[in-house]
TrEMBL record:
Protein name in UniProt: phosphoribosylglycinamide formyltransferase 1
Entry-linked Gene3D superfamilies: Formyl transferase, N-terminal domain
GO biological processes: 'de novo' IMP biosynthetic process
Keywords: Purine biosynthesis, Transferase
Catalytic reaction annotation: N(1)-(5-phospho-beta-D-ribosyl)glycinamide + (6R)-10-formyltetrahydrofolate = N(2)-formyl-N(1)-(5-phospho-beta-D-ribosyl)glycinamide + (6S)-5,6,7,8-tetrahydrofolate + H(+)
All residue ranges annotated as the Formyl transferase N-terminal domain in the record: 13-123, 152-235
Xref: PROSITE patterns: GART
Pathway membership: Purine metabolism; IMP biosynthesis via de novo pathway; N(2)-formyl-N(1)-(5-phospho-D-ribosyl)glycinamide from N(1)-(5-phospho-D-ribosyl)glycinamide (10-formyl THF route): step 1/1
Organism: Boletus reticuloceps
A cellular component term, taken from the record's GO annotations: cytoplasm
Pfam families noted in UniProt: Formyl_trans_N
Listed GO MF terms: phosphoribosylglycinamide formyltransferase activity
Length: 248
């Protein structure tokens, strides 16, 4: 059976947070409006690093994808008294502006705070501290409207569930394999919860690894190719949940 997508309805909206080279972002860009990610559009790429090459990938995509830069150090400098949690809410504000159906963390090298996730889930409004001017009629107690439909937040992580949480997971995993401490490695896309890299996996995939091979030349390219597949597949799975084909 061929499932037809109603193209008179607006495309699914994907927002992406990055910090670096953006090869996973590129995989999403390439997949948009192909059978792998039909009727979908990346509506924002936000980076916490100004020099992230992913911003260039987005700006030079066809059609160009809107980009934003919001760095933590300049934010804290420009908002005396603000905290890391305030920064996350400022990121949330940029994300909410583009009304995404899903938020993909594609190499976002920050741990997201609970407040950020609560905003995405619709459990709390944004803090008025950061937008005193914005107090609409349907605003929540704290000043801004809440999201009415949860925006799922998903993350790509270069390890299997529960294996190597946190930063440098690929390197730590590879070294552990070479020492004989683990016998398999892989990558996953998971739902983001406050506990780092512990949210429910959406897709996990083992990556071939061999004793004595080189991390940079052998394992890493193989690992990335697997990431580029599963980030697209997981984004599609989540979009299919929040915007079933018949509604697109
Ligand atoms: C990926 O390997 C991801 O697993 C890790 O950061 C890397 C980002 O790569 N968290 P890129 O910016 O998508 O090329």
């Amino acid at each position: 059976m061929v499932t037809k997508i109603a193209t008179d309805t607006p495309p699914s909206r994907i927002a992406v947070l990055i910090s670096g080279s953006g090869t996973n972002l590129q995989a999403l860009i390439n997949a948009c409006n192909t059978p792998r990610l039909p009727h979908a559009q990346i509506v924002l790429v936000l980076s916490n690093r100004k020099a992230a090459y992913g911003l260039t990938r987005a700006a030079t995509a066809n059609p160009p994808i809107p980009t934003a830069y919001l760095g933590l150090p300049p934010f804290l400098r420009d908002n005396p008294g603000a905290t890391r949690a305030d920064y996350d809410l400022a990121v949330a504000r940029e994300v909410l502006k583009v009304r995404p159906d899903v938020l993909v963390l594609a190499g976002w090298m920050h741990i997201v705070s609970e407040g950020f996730l609560e905003v995405m889930q619709g459990g709390r409004a944004l803090s008025p501290l950061l937008s005193p001017e914005n107090k609409g009629e349907d605003a929540g107690e704290q000043g801004e409207p809440r999201v009415t439909r949860e925006i799922p937040v998903i993350n790509i992580h270069p390890a299997l569930p529960g294996q190597f949480d946190g930063a440098n997971a690929m390197e730590r995993g590879f070294e552990a394999f070479q020492r004989g401490e683990v016998d398999r490695l892989g990558v996953m896309v998971h739902r983001v919860i406050a506990e780092v890299d512990r949210g429910a996996p959406i897709i996990m995939r083992e990556v071939e690894v061999h004793k004595g091979e080189d991390l940079k030349n052998d394992y890493e390219p193989r690992m990335h190719r697997t990431e580029w597949d599963i980030i697209v597949e997981a984004t599609k799975l989540v979009l299919d949940e929040v915007r079933p084909i018949s509604n697109r």
